[in-house]
Amino acid sequence: MNALNVSIVTFALIFASALVGMRVRIAMSEDNLREEVRDVIKLSTGLIGTMAALVLGLLIASAKGTYDTKSAQVRQITSDIILIDLELERYGPEARNSRIALREAVPPLIGQIWHEGDRAKMSAYSATAEGQDLVRSIQQLQPDNDSKHALQEQLLGTVANLAQARLSLFTESNDGIPAPFLVILIFWLAIIFASFGLLVRPEHARHSRIVVVTFFVGALSVASAIFLILEMGRPFDGLMQISSDGPRQALAALDR
Considering only CA atoms, which of 62, 50, 34 is closest in space to residue 233? Predict the structure, then answer.
């Protein structure tokens, strides 16, 4: 189930809980909700609301951190691609085949990264054939002086850094909120809104549209927060996906 569907279900459950709470309040007598009973409901709702607010805040911070980390890894990959080309250019004409191999390795790399967000197509990690050809071509360089030998070692180190960033993206591509955790959070939120509806006085519940509109806006806001969390947790295949313009522009620069 994608982020939008989860958010719609969350909104429906929370809003329906508030309406059910209002209907139950209308059906109950005033004796069933005496002042001390209302106080207990308020205290319990406050406790659950505090826990839910803390969890939502932590989830948003965690999702934002994940999004920023993956954005930084993409930028690292982009800079490594450009750096490898510059180092190959410094190496000299002997590295021409390696530069061609680099240009051929970038498009499959971009395709892999931006398709791993589709969990239905996930498979075991494997380096692209073009990437392996690039590594072999660099290893097969035969430096004839200390400067070129050091440059070859530097090239292999840069390629290793790129591969490490790439592998980190792959291992983190399946990260997300565990389903039981999300179910419990939505359950807490539904309880909170049901208690809000339960505390609405019968005369207000029957005649005031403002109460319903308030519940609607509140449920929509909470569902939007859930949507934001889920979207930022999957930054390569959602509405908030990280742009692939950086690596593609680096590839375009290589072709000049």
Answer: 62
Instruction: Give this prediction's pTM.
Output: 0.78
Could you report the per-residue pLDDT of 139-155, keeping only the tens digit for each?
998 888 888 899 999 99
Query: What CA–CA distance (Å, rounded) separates 211 from 7?
Result: 22
Residues 52, 161: Cα–Cα separation, whole Å? 40
Two tokens, residue 50: 């505090």
3-state secondary structure 162-188: HHHHHHHHHHCCCCCCCHHHHHHHHHH
- Confidence grade of residue 238 (pLDDT, cut at 50, 70, 90): confident
DSSP class of 44 = H
Q: What is the C-alpha separation between 199 and 26, in angstroms, rounded? A: 10
User: Residue 28 — left, alpha, or beta (φ > 0 → left; ψ -120 to 50 → alpha)?
Assistant: beta
Longest dimension (CA), the chain: 95
Q: Are 183 and 6 in contact (CB under 8 A)?
A: no
DSSP state of 2: -
Q: Which two tokens stand for residue 207?
A: 């005649």
Q: Which of 52, 63, 66, 142 is nearest to 97 (CA)?
A: 142
Burial of 27 (0-12, 13-18, 19+ CB in 10 A): exposed
User: What span, in angstroms and rounded, lies between the C-alpha atoms of 48 and 186?
Assistant: 11
Neighbours of 92 (CB within 10 A): 13
Amino acid, res. 192: I
Distance CA(55)–CA(220), nearest Å, equals 18
Residues 6 or more apart whose Cβ sits within 8 Å of residue 113: 74, 77, 166, 169, 236, 244
Extract the tokens encoding 201. 């006085």
